[in-house]
Design brief:
There is one protein chain. It contains 18 helices and 15 strands. The chain is of the alpha/beta class. It folds into 3 domains: about 150 residues, NusB-like (N-utilizing Substance Protein B Homolog, Chain A), CATH 1.10.940; about 60 residues, Alpha-Beta Plaits, CATH 3.30.70; about 190 residues, Vaccinia Virus protein VP39 (Rossmann fold), CATH 3.40.50. The strands form 4 sheets. Strands 9-8-7-10-11-15-12 form a 7-stranded mixed beta sheet, sandwiched between helices. The protein has a 4-stranded antiparallel beta sheet with strand order 4-5-3-6, with helices on one face. Helix 14 links the parallel strand 7 and strand 8. Bound molecules: S-adenosylmethionine. S-adenosylmethionine (SAM) binds next to helix 14 and strand 8.
Length: about 450
Amino acid sequence: MKAQAPNSAAPRALHQDLLAAAELLGCVLRGESLATALPRLGTKDAAQRGAAQALGFEALRGLGRARALLACMHPKALQPPALEHLMLVSLALLSLPEPRPYAEHTLVFESVQACAARPRTRPARGLVNALLRRLQAQREQLLGQILPLPEARYNHPAWWIEALRCAWPQDWERVLDLAASPPPMTLRVNRRWGTREAYLRLLREAGLDAQAPQAPGLEQALILDRAVAVTRLPLFEQGAVSVQDASAQLAAGLLDPRPGMRVLDACAAPGGKTAHLLELADCELLALERDPQRAPRIEQTLQRLRLPGAELRVADAARPETWWDGRGFDRILLDAPCSASGISRRHPDIRWLRKPQDIPALALQQRELLDALWPMLRPGGRLLYATCSVFPAEGQLQAASFLERHGDALALAAPGQILPDRSPERDGFYYALFAKRADDPA
Ligand SMILES: C[S@@+](CC[C@H](N)C(=O)[O-])C[C@H]1O[C@@H](n2cnc3c(N)ncnc32)[C@H](O)[C@@H]1O
């Protein structure tokens, strides 16, 4: 049986996509990120990879619910693990609220096909059929049983739910619910190319529609009505536009680079904010990235956007003795490594990969980076601290403790904690902006 995968024009064999999605889920459950697992997927076909990714994302967004359903209907662990992964994907999809991407009978049939396609799982096809049909028949009763469990209701680990509930007593539920649906695709029109109105016209000519959010700092932003492959975006390869979430688009404007200023982007790959800084001003920019695999992406980003050159170095920003020439910076952007808890809907693997102990470890790294970079800022200069996190340890607590340690730092107006939202559509982010007192005796 063939089925239509979401966002795909050609009919596809759904059971193959289910198998590929189960393979992805297995990778994440063994501790590997989707970003590294996806390229290794046993297919060269871009459409199949896209379909498997879409199903894998959906399964990860519903993993808490699927696990609880499986535990309820079949408390004994399924063997081999590949069978359990397939079952979790199918349960996550079949238990989605209406409208579901596939007809129920198609999903059940194709799940059984997927199970039968591999010798090691083939003997369990009767069991797969029975479990999925039971969910079909007793949907309300089974969901009623599991949804009181926080992990099943919110599809995040219990420790994450608890951390959010403590930090944001008014908003935690809304934030978690938002992570249940796919994120929007947001564009940043390259100011050096033209206005967003001009690009909106190009989009409409190409049959794509978008909304222009009316909010300070988002003057170049467009939110597409539906996500498409970047190859469908007019003049993408010619550098007219980048894909960047609305919250991330605030960074460059907050830092306010001016022509000729010496600017440091301390954690730069893949270069989204580096590029935005250069779109705003012809500054003398140094971009650092510790990861040699990620660093080349900065150059690729700048070249595609036809932006003036920047100095790029693979270096550890926390160890200035290995790369700093002693000349101070007027502006420093620290887009720090973090839990990425603010972009959980965009990367649904993150919530299952992180462990509670990661948060203090990341906060320590951020603190070390802040302390290492601060002495390189010229008096009167600005440092922008940013994380795509919604945990206070990586946001306001980090900023408050920085101010306590550095008497020459002054907090300037900045958004502080941004929680994921629908109006305008945006991810969770944290921003603190510090100025260095010009009159510091040190
Ligand atoms: C949040 S991402 C940066 C995203 C980037 N600013 C953008 O907008 O496209 C953080 C980056 O910092 C890098 N990184 C982590 N620790 C670092 C360090 N000590 N020095 C330099 N880069 C670091 C990571 O490899 C990662 O690429």
